[in-house]
Protein 1
Amino acid sequence: MAGTIGKHALVLGGSVAGLLTARVLADHYASVAIVERDHLPAGAEQRRGVPHGQHVHAMLPRGLQIIEELLPGFTAQVIAAGGSTGDMLADVRWYLNGRALRRATAGVKALSASRPLLEGTIRERVRALPNVTFLEGYDVTGLHASPGRERITGAEVANRDGSDARVVSAGLVVDATGRGSRTPRWLAELGYEAPAADTVAIDLAYSTCVVAAPGDLLGGDLVVVTPRFPGQLRSSVMQRLEGDRVLITLAGVLGERPPLLAGDLRAYARSLSMPDTYDVLRAAEPLGPPVPFRFPAYVRHRYDQLRRFPAGLLVAGDATCGFNPVYGQGMSVAAMNAAALGDELAHGGEPDPYRYFQAVSRILEAPWRLAVGADLALPGVTGPALSESPLTPDYLRRLQLAATEDDEVAVALVRVTSLVDPPASLLRPEIVERVDRVPAGATP
Ligand SMILES: Cc1cc2nc3c(=O)[nH]c(=O)nc-3n(C[C@H](O)[C@H](O)[C@H](O)COP(=O)(O)OP(=O)(O)OC[C@H]3O[C@@H](n4cnc5c(N)ncnc54)[C@H](O)[C@@H]3O)c2cc1C
């Protein structure tokens, strides 16, 4: 099918969203080029353009399912390199509101490995596609438009030292440059309206270290999640990594800052609602100093609301919508976005940006509601109000409580947070009946 829609497509940014976008485009365009400002490593190495790659990065089941469809054998490849997979509930230790979720089988699998290994494996597979090329070490500096500006015809790029500035022409340009995307600004410069931005100010801080774990520090589990809850601004996630290591991310919101000195990590971990993180940090020394990350806010750019948009341009991944990383949704949403692009291209002609952005908006709806709903429940977090939903805060609180005692509720909840089942599945009569056993207004 390559070449049925157009000759050249250009992807801006070569991280998870850009790579998956290129994989989908390669089925429909004769050639696909990815422009990336970094020189990309051959294997699973941390790189400058993805500083978040040093922090917890678990792959939720929905993302894994789609990547496996796009790149069959991906999971096996990551496992062969030391990654681990397991059931999202039976093999993940979840604490909600300071209580353990029931350990039943959710029937959906997550993947735990370092972000460089996940991205490096996707990159290796995409690099192997015969019609995909990489332009590495080049910054995208602008969009190139037709004289009437009704169409984007390529991108302006330059070597990182500013030399070799040139235009790369393409019939379709997809911006996947992440949260720092300059498409809103470039659109305004071309005389278009920039998309409105829905911003959630969460003031999140991470501090991450990796420990050697030759024994089984996580008791056979893939991931251990100790989230914040009302009255507790601190949280942690531990994940099994390749190379017999465990990655520990300590987090805080709204001014709560996890420590930046290795010696202070244990004290912070000790203050969490559950002792698991402290126990691991007591049993193993960090392999290096903790790495910080600050995340003041996340933004959804409302491209779906624009009434005028140039032909030949789309936006994907975090460049459209970033997420609070604690919910682990970003890579899965990038994969869902790539699948939506595949559906758009399956119509046969040049992609229609309006239809595409509507489709992306639909896939963003559930993860956005889950993340924003949970964050706005925290006094001090500001963001756009959500439309009314039968999943009221009281119902969700009682559902979480029920999930600590009832396998079926725990499975339903985890399948929704895995982005496999829609939030409406939490309103199935058999779930409502079980949740209703928890008294209205109950708190943990
Ligand atoms: C701290 C943190 C933890 C996270 N944890 C998880 C998790 O557990 N699970 C999960 O699924 N997701 C997680 N995410 C989200 C996930 O990292 C992203 O959603 C995912 O990487 C998709 O991002 P992207 O490809 O759109 O952008 P990015 O990963 O930000 O990549 C953008 C790429 O574009 C390149 N680039 C940028 N500007 C230019 C330019 N002008 N010219 C050329 N190249 C450019 C960059 O070098 C980079 O390669 C986390 C995010 C953060 C910040």
Note: The radius of gyration is 22 Å.
Protein 2
Amino acid sequence: MIDWGTGTYELTATQLAPAAERAVAAAEIVPGDRVLDVACGTGNAALLAAMRGAQVTGVDQAERLLEVAAGRARAAGVEVDWRAGDAVALPCEDDAFDAALSVFGVIFAPAAPAVAELVRVTAPGGRVVLVTWTREGTVAAGSGILRRAMADTGAIPAAGPGLDPAVVDWGDPEHLAGLFAPHGGEVEVERYGHAFEGASPEAFADEWMERHPMWLSGREALGDEAFAALRDPLVAVLSEGNEDPDAFRATSTALVVHVQLP
Ligand SMILES: C[S@@+](CC[C@H](N)C(=O)[O-])C[C@H]1O[C@@H](n2cnc3c(N)ncnc32)[C@H](O)[C@@H]1O
């Protein structure tokens, strides 16, 4: 179980901001839309939707991140209804939203129940937009180092998108279509390259290992020594996939998943 409130998720949220822009654009948010951002973290997508004039609710299970999100909303001069809650038991009424978004969010929750909740709270004819990771690319390979180490201890299953018990490939369009099929949702998927940047592969690895909630959860499960031993293989993977000889840049493939509900 990852405690997303530990460490400094804010750093990662900055790197993921372009994905929220894609989600809000794909959902075609217009003024007055009722919008839900599930697993909103520090509020990247929720804030963008609110800036478009939508009535926005943001739900996340990490209360510290909701406080950060609320501070950002105040600074931006927009109102968002922030609620602590679980993606598989959303604190929201049935049919309450025109659009439900989740940017690298529900991929950390059990898939079928999280999809059922997205559909339940979205009004008939509404849309769901997700951004998910595929397993392609250097950053996914780097995360895989932690995942394999944790799977070896039995702390998590051997597969899965993050460190989550839901063993689902959220990067497989067929699988995604299958998740929404029971709800009559029509799924369209667009792939894009999401670039991660840093000063060097070493600096990027250290930022992850010292500040990213997922890696900090890994340190707790593995113990300090086994955790520290992951740095060299991580730096090796990041160096091998580095696209910028003067710094660090690696492009991962992500999916923008647009679901039209009946
Ligand atoms: C990678 S972050 C993405 C955050 C945000 N959507 C963004 O784009 O920056 C994953 C988020 O999912 C949240 N999360 C994970 N599992 C959750 C669950 N079952 N219910 C609610 N939030 C969850 C975490 O607290 C974290 O904020």
Note: The CA atoms of residues 205 and 231 lie 7 Å apart.
